[in-house]
Amino acid sequence: RNSWKAVLTLAYQSLGVVYGDLSTSPLYVYKSTFAEDIEHSDTNEEIFGVLSFVFWTLTIIPLLKYVFIVLRADDNGEGGTFALYSLLCRHARLGTLPNCQLADEELSEYKKDGSAANHRNRIGSSLKFALKALLGLALIGTCMVIGDGVLTPAISVYSAVSGMELSMEKEQHQYVELPVTCAILVSLFALQHFGTHKVGFIFAPIVITWLLCISSIGVYNIFRWNPHVYQAISPYYMYKFLKKTRRGGWMSLGGILLCMTGSEAMFADLGHFSQLSIQIAFTFVVYPSLILAYMGQAAYLSKHHSLETDYRIGFYVSVPEQIRVPVLAIAILAAVVGSQAVITGTFSIIKQCSALGCFPKVKVVHTSSRVHGQIYIPEINWTLMLLCLAVTIGFRNTKHMANAAGLAVITVMLVTTCLMSLVIVLCWHKNALLALCFIFFFGSFEALYFSASLIKFLEGAWVPIALSLIFLAIMYVWHYGTLMKYQSDVQNKVSIDWLLSLGPTLGIVRVRGIGLIHTELVSGIPAIFSHFLTNLPAFHQVVVFLCIKSVPVPHVGPEERFLVGRVGPKGYHIYRCIARYGYRDIHKDDVEFERDLVCSIAELIRSEKRGSSVDVMEEVEDDDERMVVIGTTSSNLEGIKLCEEEEEEARCSDEVRTSETVVKSPERLRRRVRFIVPESSHIDEEAQAELMELMEAREAGMAFILGHSYVRAKRGSSFIRNIVINYGYDFLRRNSRGPSYALCIPHASTLEVGMVYHV
């Protein structure tokens, strides 16, 4: 359990990361609501009705739905649309990835769910047909999150800068507002590669200062202009509002819903904080501050009907004139902090999509060695910046931006509501009636807002739909092409009988070194290997089929990283190594991976001669291959260590002193490699000979064979299939990144081979 000090510290930090977007919504909610659909009359029925809607919207959606219900549906501490999707697929036994294995279900994070296997089987068999629908729903939510990453920075910064209008002439303001907004946005995106940890320590104070500022102004306005404004929280005022305004009032809901923009961040950023810290920060700090801010604005507007600027400016007119300039500065800083959180969230969800095979491989830069999950994706960053600038310059007013942002926000919330209703039944094993009540209560409330946003299609709401369709097409084409490619690899793989018929030499000359063959297959022999053996006269003495795969859990512990096994008899010296990563795990591009790989094979050789496995190892039977679960060298303290004198001579000598058994390679070699074996281990001569051969191969060097399987549509395929496979997927494949671990290996040691499959 976390101590209260730790929880409160996390709650403080969450204010800067999670709530920046939500806390800046008072800048534009009233302004967007009164843009054109309704007018502010002397009776105040409109302003009080809007306040009542804002109060109950903030209470029902962020407070009740997210804080008290949705936050509990975490995937081993992680939140967000894809976390819900992954959680559902595991419980329903629906395969999210083509190369899933039974061994993956033995992962500790997989078992944490505590769901009964028979229940999952019963549910899974009846819901297999729903996998595509579930994936489609998750991808729609994801696309809208990306759309939010474009629209939120635009509307937040533009609304904050709009306060400059009060201190200059209207003619001047037109020429200043847009350039200043664009300059701030360009700076915001240009600084992304430094990472939030560089300036993260000032995020929370900025948001706290902003919340203190708007709540204080709210309290001042309530007591100064209308102390009875609190009566407007009665739901009766919502009824009076809709009765008077009718269609206009319904259409204005598209502006009101912006009061909850950023609520999804509470769930999406759950992995960086704790459930309790987010609940405390929202319930006791953010929620009361926002309610006071909206009440204060309503109190001011209820006594000011004549000034036209009230409806153009909204927030800033209710700020006392003496403090407008410092409030403007704090607002711009708060808008930047809120935008930063949304952009970072966009990077995170695209990385998750890529890990689960739904988005092309992109370059992921880890901006902090200490804080997990802080990443930067250059291609996505500049794409978001260009789209953000296009939206800002194209619309030039908060009305259209608000319509666009509103639709993106409410769509993500509807997707979360749908997925949550399934979680209640499949994961929490509650009555289906409870799930129906959940989707009916929250879904009907959100559907009302969704319809009001959708009706503004021509007035800006088309933007998130257009962006979503583009990203959805990219995701679908990539997912479909990847699936077809994997199925082709499986269909064309070579049987073990073919390998056995060649004998230990494989019918060719075995030269010194390690041949590392990258493949997506988790079993069988890839066709690319048979292609080599039939076309080349020689191959390496040690062959490793390497598969780097993602599993549908957030994290895989270092102690469970590798699945290692033999392919064929011992004399063949052919191994399979499967490195497993969660969808939120970091793939580091360093030499440690190469070392861990060699040590995992050495550990396999050692384990075969022992009567019992140690704690960090577990045998798994998979597709007639005996696979052993082995951790990385840093996590397996009792395991074999690899020493290379040229690179780490000092560290090596320390390790040798703590061990009795040292297997040495011949002195004549220029690059000396040694395995440090724990004192407690007894290794027989056969295993020592095999370890010696592995060392010699390591000293000779490692060659990386990267197989490219190209897919083409079969002759006679439909027009759409031809377009998707031959043009869409081919374009994305050529412009996506290769495996990250390949970047560490010298180009001189890399060999790329292509094979064409017709699907």
UniProtKB/TrEMBL annotation:
* Record domain K+ potassium transporter integral membrane: where: 10-500
The protein's topology relative to the membrane is: Multi-pass membrane protein
- What Gene Ontology terms describe what this protein does at the molecular function level? potassium ion transmembrane transporter activity
**What broad class describes the main subcellular location of this protein?**
membrane
Q: Which residues form the signal peptide?
A: none
Query: According to its UniProt record, where is this protein located?
Result: Cell membrane; Membrane
Which Gene Ontology cellular-component terms appear in the entry?
plasma membrane
Would the keyword Chloroplast turn up in this protein's UniProt record?
no
Membrane spanning segments where? 47-68, 129-155, 201-223, 248-268, 280-300, 327-350, 371-395, 401-426, 433-455, 461-478
Ordered alphabetically, the record's keywords are: Ion transport, Membrane, Potassium, Potassium transport, Transmembrane, Transmembrane helix, Transport
Instruction: Give every K+ potassium transporter C-terminal domain span.
Output: 513-758
InterPro entries, A to Z: K+_transporter, K_trans_C, K_trans_N
| Similarity comment | Belongs to the HAK/KUP transporter (TC 2.A.72.3) family.
Role played: Potassium transporter.
Instruction: Name it.
Output: Potassium transporter
Q: Look up and give the organism this protein is from.
A: Linum tenue
